Task: structure prediction
Amino acid sequence: MGVICYKVNNMKQYLELGKINNTHGLRGELKFEYWCDGVDYLKQLDRVYLDDEGKTELRLISVRPQKNIAIIKLESIDTIEKAEELKNKLLYCNRDDVQLDEDSFYLADLIGCSVVDAASGKGYGTVKDIMNYGSCDIYDVVKDKKHYLIPATPDVIEEIDTEKQLIRINALKGLFDEN
Result:
C-alpha cells in the first residue's frame, strides 16, 4: 500500500508538496523540505504552484536529493535574490499531474473517512488527522469527541477505499478499550 503526500486537505485539487526552507548557492537553487514520498515523486512533475488554487505556476527544472531534503531549481529563479523571495513558501502540485499506482493513495483523501470493523461493520469514528512518528502512520480517529490512535500497519488496516470514504480495520485488543 503506497502513500504519497502529507499535510493536505481532503479532496483538494492542488496538494501541498512541501516548504522551501532556504536558498542553495548563488544561482537560484532552493532547499526544499518535501512532504511527499520523496525525490522520485517530485521528479515526475513538470510544474509546481505557489498557491492551493493553481494560479501561480512555476516550471520545475531539476530536483536532486540532499540528505533528507531536495535541492530544486525553478524556471526564472536564477539569482539568490529571486530565491530569497521564495523562502518559507509552500509548493503545491496538481493531483492530475501524477499517475498513482493502483494501490497508492493521497493521505489527504483519508481525512474524513469512516473507520469500521472489518468483521462486524461496527463504526469507530472518522479520521481527523494523520501523524507519523517514524515507524508508521497513525490515524487520529474521533468518535463522540474521543480520540483513538490507530496504527496504519498491515495487521490493522484491512482495506482503504477512498472513493467510498471507508477504512476497514482489524481492531487489535486495546485500541478501543475504555479501561
Notes: DSSP finds two helices and 14 strands in the chain. The CA atoms of residues 139 and 150 lie 5 Å apart. Residues 39-43 form the longest helix (5 residues). Residues 1-10 have pLDDT under 50 and may be disordered.
